[in-house]
Amino acid sequence: MKIAIFASGGGSNAQKIINYFRHHPKIGVALIVSNNTNAGVIDLAQKEDIPFYILQDGELEEEEFSEVLVALNIDFIVLAGFLKKIPNDIIKAYPNKIVNIHPALLPKYGGKGMYGMNVHKAVVESGEKESGMTIHYVNENYDEGSIIEQHKVELSFSDTPEDCAKKVLSLEHKFFAPCIERLLTE
Fold first, then answer.
1. How many Å apart are CA 29 and CA 38, to the nearest integer?
2. Which pLDDT tens digit goes with each residue over 53-75?
3. 102 is catalytic
């Protein structure tokens, strides 16, 4: 099974996924896609000798899907901090084969513009006593696909958005790759 990881940033989740599947007998990371030419995930792809693709003008177009994903026989798509909406053509071609990780307990703090530190600031400013991460299928709307699993972490009144981000990232690193494996092997 060949995984494509779509990421827009540094790639810490991508690195954990690559490490997890490095010697897996049936699953491997075959492609990294980014909309950001300066993303750290591109350096990661080069370091790990994984093919990568930078989207033209940062946008995901149907032509690129046909030429890249199909050509590499990609079976499953993982969004790991990817900040662009996935076009409906791709969603239809990969039904229940595109997952996203979101740094909050959906349905709270989801939707357009709710990513990264924006989410953590909103969580802390709302006085939430817990946060966490959600792994969900991708559909045509931001952060509205069926929830696969969630994991929670307690927050204290003194936690800053940066503290919240560290706690949630720790959960992401622990649970994302094993969840992907279960989805691909069950």
1. 21
2. 888 765 666 565 667 788 899 99
3. yes
